[in-house]
Amino acid sequence: MTGQRRDRADVQADVQGERVDLRGARADVSEDMAHAWRALVAAARRTVSDGLVVGTSGNVSVRVGDTVLVTPSGVPYERLTDDDVTGVDLDGRQVLGTLVPTSELPMHLAVYRSTDAGAVVHTHAVHATAVSTLVTELPLIHYMAGALGGPVRVAPYAAYGTEELAGNMLRALAGRTGCLLRNHGTVTYGATLDQAYDRTAQLEWMCRVWLAASCVPGLTPALLTPEQLAEAGERLRAYGQPGQGSG
Fold it and tell me: Of the N and C termini of the chain, which has fewer Cβ atoms inside 10 Å?
């Protein structure tokens, strides 16, 4: 027990030192970390205002060097401040803050260890969650599936916060930047937080379109062929301003 207390005290000392750094002792690190945390909190609050999560469900993370900043568990996003920076290393050891990281940390870390992701967004979006209970892959209702790398798969169900769920998610993400989680929600990632968030919003929108089209009695939605999706994917890579990509 004494050893545990000493370890925690050591961590607290490190955290306090890092917080000093965040406020200007090492401008090259502090500005990046502080800016990333503020952007993360803003994105988390946006998931609520955009109706992608209810309460504290869902979570957001962003990678800064070898540190992953992540929303804490069970804390309403509107209560988070600049002093609540919560960060872990790629092995999951807490290196910043005193708040407990999100219970879905295994999913976030699995993405960072397996891809070049700069940010991850996980939500319990209504339409996407509904679709996850109906199919094993989102039907090709719209060419924006190309922005996620192809047909969006549904990862088999596993209890939240488990390594099993993280493994199921990784298999569903193979060659993709987003997937659905059976009876759970969505996961997307991107080079930036804006890109990861945009992919989440696009995925939820596609699920909503498919559900709406599927509700018309006597009619079946027209779907894209794999060839049409591949063509759209190529065009999306050149979409927007130079260096911006498809968002």
Answer: N
